[in-house]
Design brief:
Distance between the termini: 40 Å
Shape: globular
Strand content: over 45%
Radius of gyration: 13 Å
Low-confidence stretches: none
Number of helices: 1
Structural class: mainly beta
Length: 119
């Protein structure tokens, strides 16, 4: 069974940066061929997919984070990252990683990591 563990969240001022990490324990070699995604869920809103990365590294982003967020992965470590720059208050949410639901079935959700952007 795959366990997803996200980390790196916190409180940051507008314009600041954070780097999130997500380790997929128990995924074995499946991770390297799995399209992965970063999702976020703000209070009172549905969870949304904000960044996608294919197994080979091709990336895509929702318009609201393009040019500010960068997703990457290290298949040797079964880890996916999200570099978030120029953060805005509207980026405040709990951030989760999982397989990209656009293409494959997802694993059980992890606990997520809280990102709060506020002055």
């Amino acid at each position: 069974q795959v366990q997803l563990v996200e980390s790196g969240g916190g409180l940051v001022q507008p314009g600041g940066s954070l780097r999130l990490s997500c380790v997929a324990s128990g995924s074995g070699s499946v991770f390297s061929i799995s399209p992965m995604g970063w999702y976020r869920q703000a209070p009172g809103k549905e969870r949304e997919l904000v960044a996608q990365i294919a197994g080979a590294g091709r990336t895509d982003y929702v318009d609201s984070v393009k040019g500010r967020f960068t997703v990457s992965r290290d298949n040797a470590k079964n880890t996916v990252y999200l570099q978030m720059d120029s953060l805005k208050p509207e980026d405040t949410a709990v951030y989760f990683c999982n397989r990209d639901s656009t293409y494959v079935t997802i694993w059980d959700w992890g606990q997520g990591t809280q990102v709060t952007v506020s002055s």
